[in-house]
Design goal:
330 residues; alpha/beta; Quinone Oxidoreductase, Chain A, domain 1; Rossmann fold; 7-stranded mixed β-sheet; 6-stranded parallel β-sheet; globular; binds NADPH dihydro-nicotinamide-adenine-dinucleotide phosphate; MDR_fam; oxidoreductase activity, acting on the CH-CH group of donors, NAD or NADP as acceptor
């Protein structure tokens, strides 16, 4: 089977030469292991961090070895109790066609309950990120005005809709194209949205949220964060989920110039990691699952076909080629 390997650590934007798609033997499972044929593989912005050597909350990818990431696939051989051939599992052996691993690292998923790709997105990691970041870290409450950046992406589109469904007074989103902006308002029910490429973020945000924002869910950092601080209401909360605008920077980016505004607003900025909020999983699946079935929460996926396009799909996420969760279908 084919697998993607990191050959050298990218500086700035990753280049094709930093990677190779190599043929690797398919290993039969040893005791307690399963062999899975991947059906859908996830590409996520955080993977850029794992390509660098810097210490972080997940270890860097090892040079010359298969990269990792979320994936769902079908068990085609099993030497593990409780996992049978034909079962579908969510696991971490992505960026490859076949994966052999300890069955305890996999979670069974039901293809009858939801399409398999949903377990990587709307009902998976990015969905829980939206749910936990908005409801727990940002301590969202009914009546809050919520601003989310990266709003047409996997996490952001769910943040805005959860806020609306839970009684936000106003939901504002920003995204990088006019089509995405249209989608936010017309399909996801945002009250206002703007294209951050059309003008200064601070001005566009002030126009979209004339009464300020109580919650800012940050996926982007940079100008967006500074603008949100500028529009923050008293008691406002900023949940820092991601800062995609700086992931390929080679030098540290200057911070927001207006942090003093946190004093008068008693504002709070707090980062979070989805990994720390797994306890919300059952509640998340119950609530979001019900909204999906009722059709009140909508989601998109951008599906790229073929393991050979895994790298392009990943770069596409960094460029903004995706609307909703970016998925590679094998
Ligand atoms: P998305 O589906 O949102 O895809 C990334 C999007 O970022 C692109 O589609 C693009 O959309 C936008 N983007 C790229 N460059 C820029 C830029 N310079 N300025 C503004 N927007 C940009 O990805 P995810 O939903 O998977 O992730 C969203 C964020 O959440 C990321 O920052 C990610 O790192 C973070 N994250 C954090 C987690 C945590 O535990 N804290 C867990 C999961 C994700 P556009 O066309 O609008 O520019």
């Amino acid at each position: 089977g084919r697998e993607w390997r990191l050959l050298s650590r990218p500086v700035g934007w990753p280049k094709a030469e930093d990677f190779e798609l190599a043929e690797a033997p398919v290993r039969q499972p040893g005791p307690g292991e399963v062999l899975v044929r991947n059906a859908y593989v996830s590409v996520d912005p955080y993977m850029r961090g794992r390509m660098s050597a810097a210490k972080s909350y997940v270890a860097p990818f090892e040079l010359g070895k298969a990269m990792q990431g979320g994936a769902v696939g079908e068990v085609i051989a099993s030497a593990a109790e409780g996992v049978a051939v034909g079962d579908h599992v969510l696991h971490f052996g992505g960026w490859r066609e076949y994966a052999t691993f300890d069955a305890r690292q996999a979670v069974k998923v039901d293809p009858a309950a939801a399409p398999l790709s949903a377990y990587l997105g709307v009902l998976g990691m990015t969905g829980l990120t939206a749910y936990a970041g908005l409801l727990r870290t940002a301590a969202f409450k009914e009546g809050d005005a919520v601003f989310v950046s990266g709003a047409a992406g996997a996490v952001g589109s769910q943040v805005g809709q959860i806020a609306r469904l839970k009684g936000a007074s106003r939901v504002i989103g920003s995204a990088g194209s006019d089509d995405k902006v249209k989608l936010l308002v017309e399909e996801y029910g945002f009250d206002a949205a703007f294209n951050y490429k059309n003008g200064p973020v601070a001005e566009q945000l002030r126009a979209a949220a004339p009464d300020g924002v109580d919650v800012y869910f940050d996926n982007v950092g940079g100008d967006h964060l500074e603008a949100a601080i500028g529009s923050l209401n008293e008691g406002g909360r900023i949940a820092v989920c991601g800062m995609i605008s700086v992931y390929n920077n080679t030098e540290a980016t200057p911070g927001p110039k207006n942090l003093a505004r946190l004093i008068q607003t008693r504002g709070r900025i707090e980062g979070f990691l989805v990994n720390d909020h797994q306890d919300l999983q059952p509640e998340f699946v119950r609530e979001v699952g019900a909204w999906l079935r009722a059709g009140t929460l909508k989601h998109r996926e951008t599906v790229v076909e073929g393991i050979e396009n895994n790298l392009e799909a990943f770069l596409g996420v960094l460029r903004g080629d995706n609307t909703g969760k970016m998925i590679v279908k094998l």
